[in-house]
Amino acid sequence: MYLEFDNKKIFYNIKNSEKSKALIFIHGSGGSSNTWKNQLNLDIDYDIVALDLPSHNKSDNFSELSLSLYVDVVHQLIKSLNYESVILCGHSLGGAIIQQYYFTYPKEVSGLILCGTGGRLRVAPFILNLLKNNYRDYLNSLPAGAFYRTTSKETIDLHIQETAKISAEVTYRDFKICDNFDVLSKLDTIEVPCLIIVGKQDQLTPVKYSEFSHNKIKNSELHIINKAGHMVMLEKLDEVNQAIENFIINYF
């Protein structure tokens, strides 16, 4: 399916429930809706939506990328599908997007799922340098940087293939958005229920990021998933899906 936005097309996958409520998934830097392929079959009575952000995968290219653009696209998607209740789930950069969305439209969000993310997302300079100077080396760094050491080669290889579809420039701009993101001082103003998920061995957004958010957000629960890195939703899909289903059952 496609959303029209500023005379361009934004791609999204949707599993319809015939309800007016949705769980919307937003991928991280250099990702796509395929990041959430294992979550499209969640056993919940919600529409399940996963989109490709502007300039990513099947969505049209935009000359400028920014956090505000990403928030505006998600807002337009929600309005166009006319949902009455929305839970937002974001991974890494996607977590920044959904937090900023909440601070912009607090009354339009029923709940947040923060996955491998934080209230501040500084990026190591060597990652930015690789994206600027040697994209192949960046892709080659993903097995060690984004995954736990026992994650299957098939899972890692498929992720690298998906990542390679996104240009180095787009991924670089995503990481720059992350590097400039900081809402640490506002986390304690989040009023909606929050589920916080992180891989215990996540090197890109370490457990301490999620623990900080959990301590600041009043109505939150924290799930630390063992033997998983930054791509926890690909590495430990059953545990992630169970946590999401339980969260929705318990709070909504």
Describe this entry's structure for a reader:
The chain has 252 residues and is of the alpha/beta class. It has one domain (2-251): Alpha/Beta hydrolase fold, catalytic domain (Rossmann fold, 3-Layer(aba) Sandwich), CATH 3.40.50. It has nine helices and eight strands. An eight-stranded mixed β-sheet has the order 1-2-4-3-5-6-7-8, with helices on both faces. Helix 2 (93-104) links the parallel strand 5 (85-91) and strand 6 (111-115). The longest helix has 15 residues, at 67-81. It is globular. The model has no long low-confidence stretch (mean pLDDT 98).
Give the tags.
252 residues; alpha/beta; Rossmann fold; eight-stranded mixed β-sheet; 8 strands; globular
Short recap of the structure:
The protein has 252 residues and is an alpha/beta fold. It is 40% helix and 19% strand.
Pick out the low-confidence regions: none
Q: What would you report as the Rg, rounded to the nearest angstrom? A: 17 Å
Overall mean pLDDT stands at: 98
Find the structural class using helix and strand composition: alpha/beta
Count of the domains? 1
Lateral strand order in the biggest sheet: 1-2-4-3-5-6-7-8
CATH class: Alpha Beta
* Helicity, as a percent range: 40-55%
Beta percentage is: 15-25%
Describe the biggest sheet? 8 strands, mixed
The count of β-strands is 8
